[in-house]
């Protein structure tokens, strides 16, 4: 079993819209090459794995230089082939001007990915939105976009969520060729805020999925270990969605659990168990050990 499933995130959007900047914000790096308008566009793809709040993410930017169907399908197909864990989410990037071409790109990628049967989650990220912290401005913008044209309105309504952020450039050079430290610092702060806005909903979604997966994880644990004499888990990457129950493991003599992210642990109905070793269970709030059944 894959203990810490990686969350694959695809970043799709028109050329030069701001995909690399978004990837840098998400992964908190400068690893994705951000292009000025005169520079050449990103070919194929760029990627990065990063961790945030106990989760592991793999963010991939797909460079789309034309809206030619085959090109787009090939690229998305290739990327997906490298993701045995499946795709967790697509972020479709738009800026202040949504063109007919963008709409086509959106529909092409969405249709293709839906047909592959691997995803039900597309989020639109509207970047370069300096008022991103104002709910009123976001709402106004949303209404305006929906009223602008029927196709755009359909896209916006078909997506589960629209996220507004601003990821201003951090490679700013003054007229004398020096780095404009003051502006870079301000922009970095804005990017940090954007990062939270982007990652928080993912965290929520991960939690939802974990709750759903909780039963499965407990079941996996039971199947994997219920005949064992010795259980030794050092698993900061294991997640049982908060609680673990070890019940009726009749062969168990020695158990050692280290670095598990559980807040509740129940051990019961054992007959041989005489060594229990718990260490670095920093989230543990409730522990109960009973040779017979719990009340
Ligand atoms: N102010 C502002 N500038 C941005 C934002 N996002 C991107 N930019 C700038 O827009 C330019 C293009 O951004 P990129 O991230 O390189 O765009 P891209 O979509 O990756 O471009 P290609 O890979 O070439 O298709 C860069 O100069 C970025 O710094 C944003 O949210 N706000
Ligand atoms: Mg790019």
UniProtKB/TrEMBL annotation:
It holds the Pfam family AIG1. InterPro entries: G_AIG1, P-loop_NTPase. Residues 7-167 form the AIG1-type G domain. It comes from the Eukaryota. Keywords: Nucleotide-binding. One of its GO terms (molecular function) is GTP binding. This is AIG1-type G domain-containing protein.
């Amino acid at each position: 079993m894959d203990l810490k499933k990686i969350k694959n995130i695809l970043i799709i959007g028109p050329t030069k819209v701001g995909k690399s900047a978004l990837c840098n914000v998400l992964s908190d790096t400068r690893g994705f090459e951000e292009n000025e308008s005169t520079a050449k566009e990103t070919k194929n793809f760029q990627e990065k794995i990063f961790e945030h709040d106990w989760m592991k993410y793999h963010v991939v930017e797909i460079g789309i230089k034309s809206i030619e169907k085959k090109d787009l399908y090939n690229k998305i197909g290739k990327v997906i082939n490298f993701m045995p864990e499946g795709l967790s989410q697509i972020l479709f990037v738009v800026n202040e001007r949504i063109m007919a071409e963008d709409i086509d790109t959106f529909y092409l990628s969405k249709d293709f990915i839906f047909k592959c049967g691997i995803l039900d989650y597309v989020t639109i990220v509207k970047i370069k939105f300096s008022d991103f912290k104002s709910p009123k401005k976001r709402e106004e913008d949303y209404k305006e976009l929906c009223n602008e044209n029927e196709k755009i309105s359909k896209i916006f309504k078909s997506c589960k969520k629209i996220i507004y952020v601003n990821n201003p450039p951090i490679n700013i050079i003054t007229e004398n060729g020096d780095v404009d430290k003051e502006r870079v610092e301000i922009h970095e702060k804005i990017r940090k805020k954007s990062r939270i806005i982007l990652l928080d909903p993912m965290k929520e979604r991960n939690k939802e999925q974990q709750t759903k997966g909780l039963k499965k994880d407990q079941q996996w644990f039971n199947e994997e270990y219920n005949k064992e004499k010795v259980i030794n888990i050092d698993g900061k990457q294991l997640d049982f969605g908060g609680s673990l129950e070890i019940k009726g493991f009749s062969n168990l003599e020695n158990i050692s659990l280290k670095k598990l992210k559980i807040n509740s642990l129940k051990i019961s109905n054992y007959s041989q168990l005489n060594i229990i070793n718990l260490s670095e269970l920093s989230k543990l709030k409730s522990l109960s050990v009973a040779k017979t059944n719990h009340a």
